[in-house]
Design goal:
seven-stranded mixed β-sheet, zinc, about 25% strand, Rossmann fold, 2 domains, about 25% helix, oxidoreductase, globular, single chain, alpha/beta, Quinone Oxidoreductase, Chain A, domain 1
């Protein structure tokens, strides 16, 4: 089969590899029908995730059709269309029993495209398949479902829930890429009075406005602290959500929240960020980080099926699976291409 293989920092190839095989009783082999690229994949290619070794097939977000199952599989059947979660869950360890699947100690967690071969391929082996995939109803398109493998639960759990967004709040979302837009969509479920999106790209600010931001600002030209101060009687936001993964955006978030406020870090960081405790110790801030657990995926999929989460516009570019290299070229240059999420389908 063909797959996108990481060859070291800055190097990737679409090449022939061996077909995956059942290795453990709880495995399933899934034919990939649709797949996307994550910002985390770009961090891997930049060398920010040293656990990923050359030769690894990348990718952790896909929809596919079950082709084969191991002898311990109890729920899945060949022919079912499923969402492959970015997080695998053994279902038995202490963390899984608390629904903290991202911290699974039984061999799961974020493993696809990280510690084992991922989904940017024609077929993929999915461990712990009974607890790590979600059967999809016919009413949900594969393209829409793709966004619930990672970015929707990540934005909702690590951004909105960790940030304790509540009715009447002022919420600042720093970064209006795919994760930032998903954060805006899911923050709206809690009726904040204002959602303010920050991004230097005009196309992404426009997308943020379309997806529910009440105000968009350009951090390169707008005096962001002053504007937010004007809207909050000088106090600052209740919650600031970092959706970029850069030291400067993290530090900006800590500057924008009011005393007693919350900073929820969602972005993947490849460099150290400074925590200015000399200024922050007195402000009673809550700072959270997190790898998504995906405990919310089933709930979010039900909301998608009910038409409560309009996500179709988050996919801006469409390709055949065989056009993986071109899709990466477009996705990694959003300032020139306007790309948000890309969808690649087996045609």
């Amino acid at each position: 089969m063909k797959a996108l293989v990481y060859q070291g920092p800055g190097q990737r190839s679409w090449q022939d590899v061996e077909d995956p095989k059942i290795q453990d009783p709880g495995d399933a082999i899934v034919q990939v029908d649709a797949v996307t690229i994550c910002g985390t994949d770009l961090h891997i290619l930049q060398g920010d995730v040293p656990a990923v070794q050359p030769g690894r097939i990348l990718g952790h977000e896909a929809v596919g059709t079950v082709r084969e199952t191991g002898p311990a599989i109890g729920q899945l059947r060949a022919g079912q269309r499923v969402l492959i979660s970015c997080i695998s869950a053994c279902g038995h360890c202490a963390y899984c029993r608390r629904a903290q699947y991202g911290q699974c100690r039984g061999g799961g967690g974020w493993i696809l495209g990280h510690r084992i071969d991922g989904v940017q391929a024609e077929f993929v082996r999915v461990p712990f398949a009974d607890t790590s995939v979600h059967p999809l109803p016919d009413s949900v398109s594969s393209q829409d479902a793709l966004l619930f493998a990672d970015i929707l639960p990540t934005a909702y759990e690590v951004g909105v829930l960790n940030g304790r967004v509540s009715p009447g709040d002022t919420v600042v979302v720093v970064g209006a890429g795919p994760i930032g837009l998903a954060t805006i969509l899911t923050a709206r479920l809690f009726s904040p009075s204002r959602i303010i999106a920050l991004d230097p790209a005009a196309s992404r600010r426009d997308a943020a406005a379309r997806h529910g931001a009440h105000l968009t600002l350009d951090p390169g030209t707008d005096d962001v602290p002053a504007r937010i101060g004007e809207l909050t009687e000088g106090l600052g936001a209740d919650t600031a959500i970092e959706a970029v993964g850069r030291p400067e955006t993290f530090e900006l978030c800590t500057q924008l929240v009011r005393p007693g406020g919350r900073v929820a870090n969602v972005g993947v960081h490849g460099r150290p960020a400074t925590l200015h405790l000399e200024d922050l110790w007195i402000k009673n801030l809550t700072l959270t980080t997190g790898l998504v657990d995906t405990f919310s995926t089933s709930t979010l999929l039900r909301m998608l099926a009910a038409g409560q989460l309009p996500v179709t516009e988050l996919v801006t570019h469409h390709y055949a699976l065989t056009d993986m290299q071109e899709a990466y070229d477009v996705f990694e240059r959003p300032d020139r291409t306007g790309a948000l999420k890309v969808a690649l389908t087996a045609r």
